[in-house]
Every structure is written in C-alpha cells, then in structure tokens.
Please model this.
Amino acid sequence: MESQNSVVSSKLGRAAKLVGTGAKIGGNYLKFYAKKAVTGSEDKETLHNDNAHDIYESLSNLKGSALKVAQMLSMDKNILPRAYSEKFTMSQYAAPPMSSALVMKTFKSVTGKYPNEIFDNFDGKSIAAASIGQVHKASKGDKQYAVKIQYPGVADSIQSDLKLVKPVANAMFGLSEKEMKKYFEEVEEKLLEETDYELELRRGTEIANSCDSLPNIYFPKYYPEFSNNKVITMDFIDGLHLKEYLLINPSQVEKNQVAQAIWDFYEFQLHELKSIHADPHPGNFLFNENGRVGVIDFGCIKEVPDDFYLNYFPLLIPEIQEETEIIDQLLQNIEIIFEGDSQEVKDELTEAFLRMTKLLSRPFMESEFHFTQEFLDEIYHVGEEIYKIPEVKKPTQPRGSKHALYVNRTYFGIYSMMADLNATINNGEMVWRERLKNSWMTV
Model:
C-alpha cells in the first residue's frame, strides 16, 4: 500500500479535497448516464465501485474524523451498497499509512526525540493504520512494544471536518438540523476523546484491570513512560484480525469460544461497569488459534449514564415488553415519544420500536443463541421497513436519546462479528435482567 508523505491539516485544504472528490463523483455519474444512453445498460455496480474508490481515497488521505465516518458506516452494512461497505471496511485497520520520514518527523514533534533515541529498535513501516493514528513495532531490551502515533492535525480538524460531513449525512439519512446537532455533538465529543491518548491509556488500564478475570480474553499493558497525549505505547500482542482468522478455518468449537469471550466481555462492561468499548469493529480484536482474543484500542469508550441504562435496557426484557404502561413511560424517558405527540404518532412509534426491540432482544431470550447472517438480514429488513414510517423518515422533532447512538452502534458491531463467526453463545444467568425487571415490575 502506498504511503503518504503528508497529511492535509488545514481547513481550506481539507475542504478542497472533499470538493474535489465531489467533482469526481459527478464525473462518475456522467459516465454512467452516457453509457446508459448509448447501450441502455444500467451498470450501477460499476458506478458504486467507482464512487466508493474515490470517496475512500479522499477520506483515507484526510485521516481523522472524515475517515472515522467511513469506518462507522462500514459497520452499518445495510445503509450503503456493498461496494461502499466493503471498501470502507479497510478504514478499520488498513488505511494508507504515513511514510517513514513523516512518522519520524511527527514522533519528534510530539515527544522531542526521535524513536531510536527512546527504543533500541523502531520499525518505520506501520503494522496497522486506521483513522486517528497508525501503529509501529518497537523494542527495548527483551520487550516488544506497539507504538501508536497520532496523525498530525487530527484533533484540530474534527469540528471543521464534521461541518463538511453534515451535508453528506443529511443527504444519506434525511436528518434534520436539530437531529444532526443532537447526534453530531455526541460524535464530536467521542472523536475528541479518541485524540487524547493519555485518556485512552488510563481507560485501557482501568478496563483491563476490571476484566482480567474473564476467560479467554486479554489486553496489552500500557507504558506511561513512553506515552503522551499524541503517542501511546503498549505491549505488542500477537493475533489475527477476524478476516485472517477465518481464513485458517478454525473449528466451530474454537469460533464459539472466541465469540463467547467477546460476548462475556461486553456483557460485563455494560451491566457491571456501565462503560463499554464502543468501537467493536474487527480491527480492534486479535484472534488466536488457542481460542483467546486480545482487545486493543480503548480510544472510544462510552460511559453509560444510570438514567439511560435504567430506562433503555428494560425494553429488552420479555415481561416488560407486555406491560403497556411501563413501555409508554420508558419510551418517553428515552425520548422516542413525547407527551405532545398525537395518539396516532405514539401508537405508530411504539409499535415500530417494540417490533425492532423484540428482534434485537432475541439473543437474550434464551440460554443459548445462534447468530447467523440471516438474523442480521432480518434486522436490516425490519429497519428498512420502519424507516418508511413518516415520523421516522422525517421526524417533527429529534427522537431517541443521544446515548443510544454509541450503545446501538456497539451492539450492531458485536452482532456482526458473531454472525461472521456463525457463533452460538451462552447467556449464563443474566442477573441484570432480573435486577431491571424487579425495578419496574414492582413499581
């Protein structure tokens, strides 16, 4: 993969890059319509491939929040044509890296020293490159490290990048200005947190310490003495990304084991820590042939407020789903319906939300659940049907708590990985269900 000798960091330069990409996309449409006029062929696959290539090339060169948006979209496989989602998946761990010369310059600018002044050996060629930074292998004595270096200018460009992305979001999802303001504030907050490597180091250490008793899952140790807010150093840990892992044809028993490790990790985080690793794409997990999973990159952590937790997760409990008055109160508390809504709108939204919730809660209904691609397809199909509802497609006011944005994204990412593994998971006792049920059913 070709490396970059510079990263565009100025607002004007980044805007110009996106405008240029828009011009390329316009050219692709002209070619599509010209070919259609001459041959009568509607080869939309070629159009999508050309557009996906041009958009990804632009975003990957810009890095930062622009590329992060592509990464987030790649996880929502029902939103975009396959050509886009497959291309954008590369942003999870295989974006074009900075060149060795730019790496050395960037490292020196944020640490005051070149890498070889700190480490005995430092490989200038990255082993992974994503949206916010790229990772290099280093060693000192008999220790091997993974050193993540943030791309220059990423933190400073977040606000301006999101302003540029807003028209795209509006065109793709039909979001109103109020909705965009509500959700983009949440996205901006999380992206700013991701550029603070000192925060990531602290959170990564805390979660690793809290989850160290969970079976078949492990974490790198972090090294504050070799880290700052733009460089983070941790243990180098071996493992394969999900796509590579599946290519070695592990047995279903082994796939179930790694899936169970991930499932237990997230259930523990959510229901015990009220804080979750909210970036569950395959680039952040390293799978081992011994049935263990390494978890990396704690830049995106969603702390789940108690009031949201206590009003959102009871909706996954079958007994509560049958209680009309409780459901009505819960949906008001998480801003799906409002007192001023007409009864028709309330009924329509309640029915739609419950339909989707019952589907999404299916993995928690039984002691065991088998994830399949067909289950994911069903979720996407129901989602498309619900999106046709007028008050969903063009809401009269923003609906849904902003806290649901990263929680839902997290579970869609987990479900997707579980389906790729064709995994059967065991739910254990699910103590949280009884706890939440009792808090509402005894009211």
